[in-house]
Amino acid sequence: MNWLIRMSQWARHPPPMWKVKLVVAVVLMCFAIFGIEQIWGWPEALRVNKLPRYSAP
User: Fold this and answer.
1) Degrees (nearest 5) of the Cα angle 5, 12, 26?
2) At 26, is the pLDDT very low, low, confident or very high (cuts 50, 70, 90)?
3) Number of domains in the chain
4) Is residue 3 in a domain?
5) Which end of the chain has fewer CB atoms at under 10 Å, N or C?
């Protein structure tokens, strides 16, 4: 219900254009990072838990 009230307020009083452009730029950057990750993968140096390079007998 709160989201509907907030959307109606935004429709009556839209945010400034620079805020809209900022939000669009952040969303596009997130999509670009996601796309790069899907194409080339995540670098092993940035993994939290590094995978073992060999298996122990």
Assistant:
1) 80
2) very high
3) 1
4) no
5) C
Q: Rounded mean pLDDT of 7-34?
A: 92
54: its two tokens? 């060999």
Quote the percentage of the chain above a pLDDT of 70: 86
Tokens describing residue 11: 């429709």
DSSP classification of residue 44 = G
- CA distances from residue 20 to 3, 16, 30, 38, 46 in whole angstroms, order as listed: 18, 7, 16, 27, 32
What are the structure tokens assigned to 23, written together? 């939000």
List Cα–Cα distances, 57 to 36, 49, 50, 52, in angstroms: 36, 21, 19, 13
> What is the average pLDDT across 16-44?
90
Where in the sequence is the domain holding 23, given as residue range(s)? 13-40
